[in-house]
Structures are given as C-alpha cells and as structure tokens.
Amino acid sequence: xxxxxxxxxxxxxxxxxxxxxxxxxxxxxxxxxxxxxxxxxxxxxxxxxxxxxxxxxxxxxxxxxxxxxxxxxxxxxxxxxxxxxxxxxxxxxxxxxxxxxxxxxxxxxxxxxx
Length: 114
What we know:
Strand 1 (101-102) and strand 2 (105-109) form a beta hairpin. This protein has a three-stranded antiparallel beta sheet, covered by helices on one side. By secondary structure, the chain is mainly alpha-helical. It is built from five helices and three strands; from the N terminus they run H-H-H-H-H-E-E-E.
C-alpha cells in the first residue's frame, strides 16, 4: 500500500508541474518557490502544537486546490501559482514520507513516524 500511495503522490506532483506549465510564468518561479511552504516549520521554534498547526495549514492540499481555483475564477494568475506550488510541494513531501504533523512533534505524521 505504501508504494501505491507514493505513486499516487508522484502523479499529483506531475499534475502540479503540468498545471504550472499552463500558466504564463517562467520556470524559475516554480523552482524558486518550490520549498517556500517549508518556511512554515518556523512555528516549531515556539512549540510543537503551533509548529504542527502552521505546517499543516501550508501543506494542506485542500487549501492548495482552493487557492488554485480562486486564481482561475478571479483571473488572478499569482493566486493559481501559489496553489500549484503548495499542491506540488505537498505531493513531493508525501512521496518522501513527510505527512501532515501531529502535535506530538515534527516526526509524528499522519503517515506514521519518521
């Protein structure tokens, strides 16, 4: 099952790359912003609960999809870009086993312990 989930995430990462290719941005935007969602780990400097909250908020695919669709609906390409970056980055994280965090600590995720 683990291989199937990782394969599914790989296809979602490929989907994110494809959706980005449909926008009118240079590829350096995708590359340059790809790891920006990891800035949310700064919350762990306060405590694990706040860290998990911020990390999960910026790694939630639902938020990514809403931002992408809002960008399409309101003809705001940068909003679609943010949604695609969040979606693609979250997929890449899950391929490597970094799931949404539990408040017990950074290594405790919805995919299991790191």
